[in-house]
Amino acid sequence: MITVQQLTKRYARNTAVDHISFEVEKGQIVGFLGPNGAGKTTTMRILTCFLPPTSGSAKVAGFDVLEQPLEVKRRIGYLPETPPLYLEMRTMEYLSFVGRIKGLSGNELRRRVDFVMDRCAVADMKDRVLGKLSKGYRQRVGLAQAIIHNPDVLILDEPTAGLDPKQINETRDLIRSLAGDHTIILSTHILPEVEQTCEKVIIISRGKLVATDSVNNLQSRARGAGSVLVEVASRGGPLDPVAVQRKFERVAGVSGVVCKDSNANFSTFEVEGKADRAMRGNLARAVVESGWDLNELRTAAVSLEEVFLQLTGADAPAESKAAPVETEAAAKA
Amino acid sequence: MRNSWIICKKELRSYFVSPVAYILLGLFAVVFGFFFWTGVRYFNDMGMQSMMRGQSFPMNINEQLIRPLVSNASVVGLFLIPIITMRLFAEEKRTGTIELLATSPIRDSEIIAGKWLAALLLYGAMLLLTAVNFVWLFAYGNPDWKPLAIAYLGLFLQAGAMLAVGIFISTLTRNQIIAGTVTFGVCLLLWIMEWVSGFEASTWATVLSYLSVLTHFDSFSKGVLSSKDAVYYVSLIAIGLFLTARSLESLRWRA
Question: Looking at this predicted complex, what is its ipTM?
């Protein structure tokens, strides 16, 4: 649905987007992730034909943003960072206006306006002046205008920025519910948002593509081979962490054991190896067979936060200079 | 065309939803009415005097009342035109709604045409209101309507040209005050440039005075339809709108 190749946008002094390539398939929700100033908004503006690229190409539904902008614009719904509202208009009037400039008219226009007001839960404010709406409502009206012409592609620039937690959840639910009909790209610098909403993540940092992969793959990639946290307690009497460690090292599938924390009664170990069911089962069995108690056994979940910091080089500056990694390939290998 | 009309209706609505349109209409009507009243008084006094002196001084309502009246009206227009155009693009840039327009399947030219048309229609409404005054003139006098119509056409054309300049200036900034002030300055310069012809006869003075909007209004106020002057205004409109289109486009390359 969206094909971006070697896209570059240079300004007089800096390069906002530097040879970015990615593809988005029909019906996907893709999270566009990066710190502030990474080039997210610029990329989105190029996709919506608001800005022309310096070099490279971007195609939406097979139409090039430079060659056939009108065709691209017909197929795109765009919600900029601040919803583009005419604050002196009323909700319904505004949506009708947007519908008209997007090419709707007559019965179809009325039908779509009613539909999107319903869908985005703004129907109760249809005669309210936009300037008097709360931020959450404004954001929803912004979403409503983006989907009014039933576009194939939805581009949402930080759709939850500045909302309160309840509004954020509502907006996320709304976006997720739109996924079936539309291909969605949303940008954010909030990581849990991507974990909760998106299927695929495109991470950019300082204008460069850092990674593009599914949320699950990224998490497991950051986990590396995968590790398991095990908390073991003694059954009466003190526990010898060294004995536990030795025991674990002999369990099938384990490649390394680190004692993370230990005191008289219980110890926590990080066990590295193939974090599959078999290994976890073996670990549990080993603990119980040795007469200890198994207090906790869990895969060490890594949040996207850590992946993100790793990838954008906040923790490892050397990595950011490396070429963009296609982690899908890495995962298969 | 359809898209321009949608934009035009939106702009007109926003003029009339805010007090702007009413203030402009009211102000123009009052000031024009004042000019009309003083003009009529002066005209009457002149008529009386010439009668009392027993001179058969030929009195001409078109020449002695309507002509100065229309010239005054065009000066008032000069003050009000920046107020009409200043928000057209500056406001869209400030609030970010320009992104909505620019990412909708409509052409820049349609946006510009729609906005210019809305501004022109508002000015047209202002002119229309002043017609009330002439109802009395036609009821109690016998002015020739053709020169009056041509004078109004001149007012309309001149406003169209200055509105086009104003719209262009509105694309250059996101600050309405700046847009309005600069528009006023530029229009004023376009106006007073004609003065150099009073004391200079060199080529540049001729060129400068030719470029002035005032030079070309003279024939219209006299009630003479001069194609040369009409072409000047139409060209100025075209240049203004063309510059607006270029400016919108460059906005995208720079933004």
Answer: 0.88
